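Posted in: Structural Biology > Protein-Ligand Complexes

Title: Requesting predicted complex, cytidine-5'-monophosphate in pocket

I'd be grateful if someone could produce the 3D structure tokens for the following input. Sequence and ligand are given below.
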Amino acid sequence: MQYMKPGERIILALDVPGYNEAVDIVERCSEGIEIFKVGSELFTAAGPEIVRKIHSIGKKVFLDLKFHDIPNTVAGAALSAARLGVFMFNVHALGGFEMMRQAAQALSRHSLRKNTARPKLIGVTILTSMDQATMQNELGIGLSMSAEVKHLATLARRAGLDGVVASAQDAHMLRSRFGKGFLIITPGIRPSWSPPDDQKRTLTPKEALRRGADYIVIGRAVTACHNPLDALKRIKDEIAGA
Ligand code: C5P
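-- Reply #1 --
Done. Output follows.
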């Protein structure tokens, strides 16, 4: 992967309930951020309009809707994401190989036909709000957390995905298994001065990058701050040496 400045590696999560709140954050942080993450809360309220707005100011969108449905439906959703022109979007790897494969193929065909860049298709492994106990007791998955993450990431790669969302704690293992060129996106990031909230497997921005993450997703550690630009600056200073 080519060299990226610290700010280009941060994806800012817009976990807010509406268009105006999102635009407010985008405008306050656009100086320091290239990629904004639009998730299900915001997209359900504001729809594609918020994506177009972010594009209109020259920024990229990670559409974090974590599609998980039958292959035909997810392939259709993938096409809709491609038509919107998002930089990156994701599907749950737990949706299975065929679901991921059809989504990847739909994207490749679309970008070939339209001669446009294929959005990065990312597989979500196990949510960072889950730990080993919840994964085993609630999902009934018997493997260890890292074995399950490795298994799902391998499936995602075989299906033609560009990378995975995974806890920073698994980033090193994934990077050594897949080498460069397979994207690792890590949420659950908390600078030392920030509370963990509902995240269970957190790491600092610097540590996540050191372990091999290409992009780190940061939400409340920045957006809940009085001065988000200042919080971003502190994070960038912290990761500058990573
Ligand atoms: O506020 P915080 O930094 O915890 O936000 C993390 C963001 O990353 C949220 O938008 C959440 O939906 C997303 N995410 C996550 N764990 C995953 C995938 C995405 O926390 N495995």
